[in-house]
Amino acid sequence: MSIPLAMVATQFLDRPGLAKKTVKSYEHTLMPLLKQYGSWPIEICDRQILTDYLNSLSHLAYTTHHRHQATIQALFNYAVEQQHIKSNPIAKLKRRKPDADKGEHSSDEAIRYLSADQIKQMYRTVETDCRTHTIVRLLHRSGARISELLALDLDVVDLKQQKFQVIGKGNKQRWCFYSDDAAQLLNTYLKHYRDHRCPALFTAQQPIAGNVSRLSYRTVHQNWRRVIAGIPALEGVRLHDLRHTFATERVGLMGIEELRALMGHESIMTTLRYQKVTSARAETVAQSALKKLAD
After folding, report:
1. The model's pTM
2. Domains in the chain, CATH or no CATH each
3. Hey, which residues are catalytic here?
4. Which of 36, 98, 227, 243 is paired with 122 by a 20 to 30 Å CA distance?
């Protein structure tokens, strides 16, 4: 007799010995899957269906994507144990790799940040595109991730206090604050370029159908590549590098715990990486100065 996926998930979550925090995390992770396939008999949920579902979660950071895949795999392992199915359909499925274009990286990858000259060049380059300029300025001044910025609706941005709240990795909320220059540019964008027919902070209109929707990461990335194309100083620069630049600039200007809170890092070790970057940069500058003095 077949059993719905949602019923198996309920049994999976009701297992004795699970901590409340673990159950809550599993529920949050499985809910989108159950909304689509909860009523389906579990044996119908084959490898192709689950692979397509995981591929649809492209908006998630790769570490969050790994957690979703691991939880779904654990659910189907449980289904095998309970003899609801014969084998786990996503057994040995490869995990998604980090996407460098989205600023994702392994923990041992060097932090990439922009120099002062690169920042000046960048701002001069994006001046002709108000929407891209606004996004770039906010990323650099607030330290927000591009995915967090694009998920914002206008009504959650405090224009007077120049701040907005985002939901970052691990479903954690934090405040991001932006500077006067970013505020002025944002006001210009809102007044002359944003389409009021969509609640999103950053909107886009389809060229043929004319429909207005939330600006996608793909469109932002394409515009960014188009704007910086042919600029040697910006070759290979990613939008996520602006977040790294934000953090690098603030090391030494505030406590490491305060910077950790601004960045939304779960581990203090992640924040300390920027301190190492700043120390290495200081050494480079010092060596350069000594060489000039010697000459």
Report:
1. 0.61
2. 5-97 (1.10.150.130), 116-294 (1.10.443.10)
3. 145, 169, 240, 243, 265, 274
4. 98
